[in-house]
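Archive transcription. Copying these from loose printouts into the bound notebook so they stop getting lost. Printout 1 of 2:
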Amino acid sequence: MATSSHKRHLAKTITWRMVGTLDTIVLSWIITGNPLTGLKIGGAEVVTKMILYYLHERVWFNIGIKESRKRHLFKTFTWRAIGTLDTFLLSWYISGSPLTGLQIGVAEVVTKMILYYFHERTWYKINFGLEQRRKKKSWKETS
């Protein structure tokens, strides 16, 4: 089970980073008016966010909160707090402007929370890396 959960968390990390990076690039481009700045910020986030997201997944895997929509909402808010802080700091550093960093970070709060919630709901329906749930489901299907 532990190896499967690691594979699942890595797969979720990669799929979320693809969605999140695209969102960051587009928002940064719109806010700064410079596609290169958007690409720089999005590129920098690939590394920081994958590490932070993986650690976030591992923590939530070990928290004893029952699978539910509430859990997905709590995960959404905790991840968004971590992600926004990271985006703000990277955007400030890359653009040289704390105001630009703040604008990009604030814009992401809305778009990323919506995207993350649907990413979580989608992964909740996927059995990849969840041997227990897969076994229960296939037992129910044969009954």
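Printout 2 of 2:
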Amino acid sequence: MKIIAIQKSALDGMKNELEALLELTENATRKYSPIFKGEQWLDNQEVCLMMSITKRTLQTYKDKGLLPYSRLNRKNYYKRSDVQALLETGHPYNINDDGFTDE
């Protein structure tokens, strides 16, 4: 183990810079938290695992407007609450073009 000795003033300077960086980070996070409102966002893989569906089925849900999503940097994200709502209503497996299920 190495022991490095530095002056107290240098240590205090580093501490102050780290505290300033932490404050900047917290301010940035606070600025965007109203956008998310505590909502958890899931990616394609997480939604497929949660719903036990394939990527193709997920694409069909998106195409039919059954599952809203947001796109960020060419990647789709889904609100956990929207996925939960779709799970609670049941999987619309065989969906016609008119939006009704085949039974």
